[in-house]
Write a structure and sequence with these properties.
The protein is of the alpha/beta class and about 140 residues long. It has one domain. The protein is about 45% helix and about 15% strand. The chain has a three-stranded parallel β-sheet with strand order 1-2-3, with helices on one face. Strand 1, helix 1 and strand 2 form a beta-alpha-beta unit. The radius of gyration is 15 Å and the shape is globular. The protein starts with a strand and ends with a helix. The mean pLDDT is about 90.
């Protein structure tokens, strides 16, 4: 399950899914067009959290959920799925609360313009994601 609108690692996900013959479900809002010939693609109306809720509604215990959204990760954990972000961080019950607290703090800082945007994506981030996804897949097989 992939929260795919802003996901920079779709190709890595597809590569590993093909290797392990795993299904991939990509969720986008209707401002995106995507086809890879492998994934099941869901196009949803653009709206507040429509992609997030559709992804969670279709996910089950044991699914791997790729998202950078802490709220989606929290809902995935509640379903006993395995959320991971685009940088290879595997969310769990031990780290999600501190991440949510950090998000709230960062929102306040952004409101007062005391925070920079995200770092530019690097090849090292892709490598870390691929390694973490590989470990997650192998621990669940």
């Amino acid at each position: 399950m992939v929260d795919a609108d802003a996901c920079p690692v779709k190709e890595i996900i597809i590569k590993l899914a093909k290797k392990y013959e795993l299904e991939v479900h990509m969720f986008f809002d209707n401002s995106h067009v995507y086809k890879d010939g492998y994934s099941t693609v869901y196009i949803l109306d653009k709206g507040a959290d429509s992609v997030d809720y559709a992804l969670i509604n279709k996910s089950f215990k044991g699914d791997i959920v790729v998202t950078q959204d802490y709220g989606v990760a929290t809902m995935a954990l509640s379903k006993r799925a395995y959320p991971i972000n685009q940088n290879g961080l595997i969310y769990n019950d031990d780290n999600i609360m501190s991440l949510l607290t950090q998000r709230a703090t960062n929102q306040k800082l952004r409101k007062h313009k005391k925070m920079k945007g995200p770092r530019k994506r690097t090849k090292e981030m892709d490598i870390k994601f691929e390694q973490s996804l590989y470990l997650l897949i192998n621990s669940k097989l």
